[in-house]
Amino acid sequence: MPIALYALTAGAFGIGVTEFVIMGLLLNVGADFGVSIAAAGLLISGYALGVVVGAPLMTTATARWPRKTVLLVLMAIFTIGNAACALAPSYAALMAARVLTSFAHGTFFGVGSVVATGLVPRERRASAIAVMFTGLTVANILGVPFGTWLGQHFGWRASFWAVTAIGALAFVVIAGFVPKIAAPKDAGDWRADLRALARRPVLLGLLTTVLGWVGVFGVFTYIAPLLTEVTGFAEGAVSPILLIFGGGLVVGNLLGGKFADRRVVPTVLGSLLALAVVLGLMTFALHSHWLAIVFVALLGAAAFATVAPLQLWVMEKASGAGESLASSFNIAAFNLGNAIGAWLGGFVIEHGPGLTAVPWVAALAPLAGVGVALLSLRLDRRDAKSLVTPTCETPAL
Question: Coiled coil where (predicted)?
Fold first, then answer.
């Protein structure tokens, strides 16, 4: 893999840390600004919604720019946004700074995926995407725990200053190692981009992504109460178990890329089906300490095994005009799935069968994703057949 890919990985690492480190700092932020934990939790929701809104806006606004320039501008926004978080004088200012930072997220991963696939031979495109997303998985294993520790010992602002430094370093690395890549020849026509995005195969691909990650975050959002209240672990055991989850993320991410290099569609279907099976069986595994640990690792692996295949699948559906926009929209689709999954899990706990039912209810979402993917394939085959119109010649008399 070319070194430029690892420069993209550095940027992905920084973005991953700033997205998730706030989860471990909610008590500190809430106490500092005098707001409830629920209000502090909205800093997570605000970021996710900022990704959903910012991805199409930033991708469209920068469509005519050289892609390296786009990446550098996004890392500059990311760095400035985190500095603003560290300096925020109020809760409202912190929320605004988080939303500003989130605007870089979707387009960085969307454009970065397009750049990554252009740096390698065609048969290694999914692995290239997986290498870039490794920064996100490593952020969960190393960056988030360290950022949480830093914030708890030196104040939550120290965590954001650390992420600001990571952003500045990533800017330098991308500037030094990512080659200059011109904007695509068909860039800048937002109408053509939207037409490409509105094609049925692209929309079904985006829906598949949303459904897959509804299942992931339906469980992951409530993993701490599941481990403590259902399995019976002490609260102090949750963090080490989440490190195991992070290890599963890395393994699943790389395996998903390797398999998708060979055959994208079977990998999409297989990874979603594996995710549904893991979530379904987790319902029973949570009643055993050892099985719970095993299935937390399997959940991490199954979750990120879907990322590179889904990202490449949507990009292929929108190849040519709209590829960057579709790629960025797919990142937004992951985040939309996160938000819906968190809501679904909460609904099941408060208004449904309860906490123990969350895993099997969450399993229904990736199963629905498999159904949508199969429907998309069937419609594609039907369209392909309709384009082949047999001709018959009348023999001369």
Answer: none
Q: What is the pLDDT of residues 115-124, one digit of tens each?
A: 888 877 877 7
The Cα 129–Cα 306 span in angstroms is 12
Query: Is 189-385 in CATH node 3.10.20.30?
Result: no
CATH fold label, 1-181: Growth Hormone; Chain: A; (1.20.1250)
pLDDT, tens digit (0-9, with 9 covering 90-100), for 32-50? 888 876 677 778 778 888 8
Domain boundaries, the chain: 1-181, 189-385
Report CA-CA distances (Å) from 386 to 97, 376, 380, 383, 389. Answer: 51, 15, 10, 5, 7
> Mean pLDDT in the chain?
83
What's the CA gap between 182 and 258, in Å, rounded?
28
211/370 Cα distance (integer angstroms): 9
DSSP, residue by residue, 134-180? HHHHHIIIIIHHHHHHHHHHH-HHHHHHHHHHHHHHHHHHHHHHSPP
Backbone region of residue 150 per phi and psi (left: phi > 0; alpha: psi in -120 to 50; beta: other values): alpha
Domains 1-181 and 189-385 share a fold: yes
pLDDT in tens, 326-377: 777 888 888 888 878 878 888 888 787 888 898 999 999 999 999 999 998 8
Q: Model pTM? A: 0.76
Ramachandran class of 234: left when φ > 0, alpha when ψ lies in -120 to 50, beta otherwise: beta
Tell me the one-letter amino acid at 340: I
